[in-house]
Design goal:
By secondary structure, the protein is α/β, with parallel strands linked by helices. The chain contains 10 helices and 9 strands. Strands 1, 2, 3, 4, 5, 6, 7, 8 and 9 form a 9-stranded mixed beta sheet that branches.
Length: about 290
Amino acid sequence: MKVSVILVSYNGAAVLPRTLAALANVDVSGFEVEYLLVNNASTDETRMLFHEFLGLYPGLLIDEPRPGRSAALNAGLNVAKGDLVVFTDDDVLPKPGWLRAYVDAALKYPDLLAFAGQIRLDWPSPPPDWLARFEKSRRTLGATPIDRGETFVSATAVKGANSAVRRQAILIAGGFRTDLGVVSVGPPLAGEETYFFSLIQQAGHKILFVPDACLFHIVRPDQMAIWSLMQRGFRNGRGAAAIDDKPIPFSRCSLAGVPGYAVRQIVYSMVIGVVLFFLGDRHRGAELLLIFA
């Protein structure tokens, strides 16, 4: 079996050395691997770091000048030759058995086309209590439930930093939607991977969660702030609205299209959440502020 690993980076030089060092320690014995490293219009040393890595390991450096993760992923898909294609990010630390677990799952279940892996968190410093409690429930920063075993999951449970598909699935999904993710016009929308895997699921194929396909997401200090987590939730919400073809008119000062009960819930959650977070129960306040994340 041949595995194509697509890793996308936009100005990721600050964390890429750790990611590439961990990738170099991944066990690839018994199968062939190619690393498709996509430089997505970076202006830092990302391209140089990719070039150095590919001087030691098999693969291809791809330059994608169009902004956006979707365009970069599609550039990788266009040249991928693997029987199994694995998607990941520039700010992760894969465990040595990461790819092996995907290969074993693909061999064990030859009829399955899509797989999702476990994501845990690599903190820059011990998180505050309210955030640590969110980590335990795996409700933040793209992490997955730590107690989730090998089971089938929905497309909404798939994390783009750690997922895999067979080549047949690419033909079904037809690539990633370039109007999702970071785009040149309008606010950033999350959900490109959710939509990709939802098309596979809608075609009648199940998605298997593979807990041993595990990696750690490198958390930046600024990502630990409540406002950063709220912005992440807003991106998720905007992406969900776009996927449902029911976009909320963010560019207008209007409540058109937003049900009154939703407006009341948002206002209530924001006001009470801020009060509790800064003056009382920080965990409960965070729950209210991140209720739609």
